[in-house]
């Protein structure tokens, strides 16, 4: 039976939220000061070849790494004390979240010193994402923060001024720099990245670099020295390719690694996302449904909720079919207490056991007071979703209210769900879902919101339109446009926008290219086009005519009208890079 993850008496979120000045922690030198460190006792490890020691400091979605390790046939021993690190036969550190709170936990708990000692002894180690960044001397995230100092260099933010969207989210290609061992079976396939900060190769750290990736600049995608490995991407979210990388680390001498075949990855791929709108039907069972302009009930005498399948089974099928991400939207979450929605949390937990691509969940992520008077912050709600298997959370109505207040006052309070969650988990973990409705007008001067000249005239010959944002599942219009909302939430900490369109929802006539163009040109964060897909041509159209980074569909996949693989094959024929 597993021990619970290491839990400090303080939480990284509370430390970060109450800090008023940039955090500075002790830098761990690489070797001269080893004699002055605490003398941890090292005893013979009782670990067997089937046990992996996992350093989980309590932030973000580590469940996916756990599930991948178990999927590959290994048991997990959680780090409880620094000695557990020193006694490990193999150690995985899946760093998730922001650099500063992670570094503070490592410093205060003594884990940082033990980690440095373990790595300096060339023990088997795999760092993932933040688990790579923390090995460097410092990071510019949240001010200049000192790291473990094992690898020369400072982790800096991507430069969005070059036209590249930040965060870097999606499936990109690697360029192998030297014998990497764990990357031997990658075969020119894409792997999944989600980060805003990266380390750059230099003469000082070139002996560490095993692969790089191009995204505006060439950054370090992985490092290796002896038995020490770390990757910026997420192998646990990179499908079969990622599992092969983990297998290579866990079975370094095995020749039985699963071959993934040869790929054609050359750059960041456009993503095809499967969305599952989830709600309870009239019998209380959780089902996947699909709306027609957000109406999810059948046009029958019974007026029952449209039932298109079971969430976990559909998600697993879409993963096998090649979906680049799976998104769950709890479409009644705006009126229910989200942490009381245990079936939805169970859906995430079960799905993450066998689905090794990113999972996003949305619905009801906001501050909440339950019937007993207990107050829950949006940060606590998000934390439970992350612990249950979500990689990203999607915020809807709460983001609209936050944006309205920010536009009205010009003040970032730091108390909104957007600001709190992005500060602790990083903005790459926060998606804002925008649900706008098209409003036709004759003259752009008739409204205070950003308008566009539409490609098809309105019902009365109108040549212009603005997009009114809604809340509560599209039921209530708000005095804010989609353009204004997108600009505001980017400033408040959103890392990605899921752009729906009520007018196109369920119509199968294509994405609202006018809307997607308006929003994707207005922000520097990735935009996911949603609502209206009916045939593969609609995907190539939105990618060719707009700056969308991804396109999402639901009904055509649920009803098996268009297979995901058919969409990808079509995109390839059109010269659009996708993951195969």
TrEMBL record:
GO terms for molecular function: glutaminase activity; imidazoleglycerol-phosphate synthase activity; lyase activity. L-glutamine binds at residue 129. It is found in: Plastid, Chloroplast. Its EC number is 3.5.1.2. Keywords: Amino-acid biosynthesis, Chloroplast, Glutamine amidotransferase, Histidine biosynthesis, Hydrolase, Lyase, Multifunctional enzyme, Plastid. IGPS catalyzes the conversion of PRFAR and glutamine to IGP, AICAR and glutamate. The glutaminase domain produces the ammonia necessary for the cyclase domain to produce IGP and AICAR from PRFAR. The ammonia is channeled to the active site of the cyclase domain. This is Imidazole glycerol phosphate synthase hisHF. It comes from Vicia faba.
